[in-house]
Write a structure and sequence with these properties.
The chain is an all-alpha fold. Helix content is 83%, strand content 0%. It is built from 8 helices and no strands.
Length: 220
C-alpha cells in the first residue's frame, strides 16, 4: 500500500511539473510572439517614414532635374536668339545664305561646262593663227593712244603758266605764298613790273631768288 501511495504522489508531482512546464512554454511562446509582433510593428513604423523620405527625395530630385533641364533649354534658346540677332546685325547670316545660294547651283551645273570646254578646244585647235593675230593687233593699237595722250598732257603743262613750281627753285609752299601775295603767273616773275618787283622783294630771302627771273624766262 505504501508503495502505491508513493507512486501516485510521484505521478501527481510529475503531472504538475509537466502542466507547469507546458504553461510556462506557452507563456514564453506567447511572449515571443508578442515580441515578434511588436518588432514587426516597430520595423514597419521605422520603414514607413524611411520609404516616405526616400520617395520624397526621389520626387524632389526629379523636380530639380526637370527644372534644371527646362532652365537650361530656355537659356540655350535665349543664347541662340541673341547669337542670331548679333549675326544679323553683323551681316553674317545674309552672307552665309548668299554663299549657300551661290554654291548650290555649281553642283547641278558641274557637268555641263565639260562639253563647252571640249567644243572650245576643237575650235582652238582648228584656228590658232587667227587668235594670235587678233591678240597682237590690239597691243600695237593700244600703245599709240597712250603716246598720243602723253603729248596733249605735256602741251597742257607747257601752256600752264600759272604753275609757279615750273620755275626752278620755287617749291609748292613758296608758290602758294607768291599766289597769296599776287604773283599768279610765271610772266610776272620773268618780266616783273614795278608792282610785281615790290611783291617779289618779299621773297628775297628764298634760296635761288636771284635766278627766278632767268629761270622763268626759260620756261616761257
Amino acid at each position: 500500500m505504501g508503495k502505491k501511495a508513493s507512486k501516485q504522489n510521484v505521478d501527481k508531482v510529475v503531472e504538475k511539473v509537466n502542466k507547469e512546464f507546458e504553461k510556462t512554454s506557452q507563456r514564453i511562446e506567447k511572449l515571443m510572439n508578442d515580441a515578434i509582433k511588436q518588432f514587426d510593428g516597430v520595423q514597419n513604423q521605422v520603414q514607413e517614414p524611411v520609404r516616405k523620405l526616400l520617395k520624397e527625395i526621389d520626387e524632389l530630385r526629379e523636380r530639380e532635374v526637370k527644372r534644371f533641364t527646362d532652365e537650361f533649354d530656355r537659356r540655350m534658346d535665349e543664347f541662340h536668339e541673341l547669337q542670331n540677332s548679333v549675326m544679323e546685325r553683323l551681316g553674317l547670316s545674309s552672307s552665309k545664305s548668299s554663299a549657300s545660294k551661290k554654291t548650290a547651283p555649281k553642283k547641278s551645273t558641274a557637268k555641263k561646262p565639260a562639253a563647252k570646254k571640249t567644243a572650245a578646244k576643237k575650235t582652238a585647235t582648228k584656228k590658232p593663227a587667227v587668235k594670235k593675230t587678233a591678240t597682237k593687233k590690239p597691243a600695237s593699237t593700244a600703245r599709240k593712244p597712250a603716246a598720243a595722250s602723253k603729248k596733249p598732257a605735256a602741251a597742257a603743262k607747257a601752256a600752264d603758266s600759272s604753275d609757279l613750281t615750273r620755275v626752278k627753285g620755287i617749291g609748292p609752299a613758296t608758290a602758294k605764298k607768291m599766289k597769296d601775295a599776287g604773283i599768279t603767273d610765271i610772266s610776272q616773275i620773268a618780266n616783273p613790273s614795278a608792282d610785281d618787283q615790290a611783291k617779289l622783294s618779299a621773297f628775297s630771302n628764298v634760296k635761288g631768288f636771284s635766278t627766278f627771273s632767268a629761270e622763268a624766262k626759260k620756261v616761257l
